[in-house]
Design goal:
Low-confidence stretches: none
Distance between the termini: 22 Å
Protein name: ATP-grasp fold PylC-type domain-containing protein
Helix content: 25-40%
Oligomer: single chain
Number of helices: 7
GO molecular function: ATP binding; metal ion binding
Number of domains: 3
CATH class of the largest domain: Alpha Beta
Largest sheet: 5 strands, antiparallel
Length: about 280
Amino acid sequence: MIPKIVNRTAGKWAFDKLANVLSESLWVDIEEDFGDINYILCADKQNAHKINSFIPIESINIAADKRKIEKKFNQYLVARPNTFLADNEKEVELILLEYPHIQWILKYPIGCGGIHHRFIEDINQIPKGWPQPFLLQEFIQLERPEVYRLYCVDGEIFGFNARRFKDTSNKTPWVSHANGAVYEYGETPNREAREMAKTALISTGLYDSFGVVDILKKEDDKWYVLEVGTDGIYNYVDREVENQNLFDELNERLAKAFWQKIGTPPWGKNWSYKN
């Protein structure tokens, strides 16, 4: 079998840095043509579903659209903040009227890093051309905004961290690396958090390949899943994790999982990973 990291089409520049990291850690070349098994980064959507992908194409598509994530979470009863899909503005209005005590977020469904998310109190606040169906989610107010992340490769969950702003007075609700949040370490997820992350990954088909789960903990210590993420076609998982041990562990786990689907890895039969 010929393995390849696929990075092609006009948007490939956005994946170039990650492609080089993966090429070095997986010991696989970056190509524009498909191989027998592929780690897909940037590729045309029309042909991607026809090829053998380490991360299932269907799961990549789900992770790229928060509405699809919500449908899977609902099917698998994943604990999350109150969330609704509304087919039109009238349904949005009914939700706002029925739950006036909830602060609602209109989430931009096909973005990342909180891009374009906004609070909504009235349907007149919906921008023209907003993707439908509309995705509304309850905003969980925290004393200090934070989001936790767990990683999963080949059915093993690891790498717990938290994103927070260094400035403790910063109350920006979208706690993303792109918005200036930093990764912090030293905490340990409890069993509930890990089980919720596992269910979220299973529901979206990422558990047996590669995915991340963003979760939050309310001040009453209840955990809720926000979304999942993975690499490929539309987005990729942030590798600037400010922790060399996690960076190396993620690369090693991905390399071993990728080559398990092929055969003997290029670093030797004893499975001693070398970067």
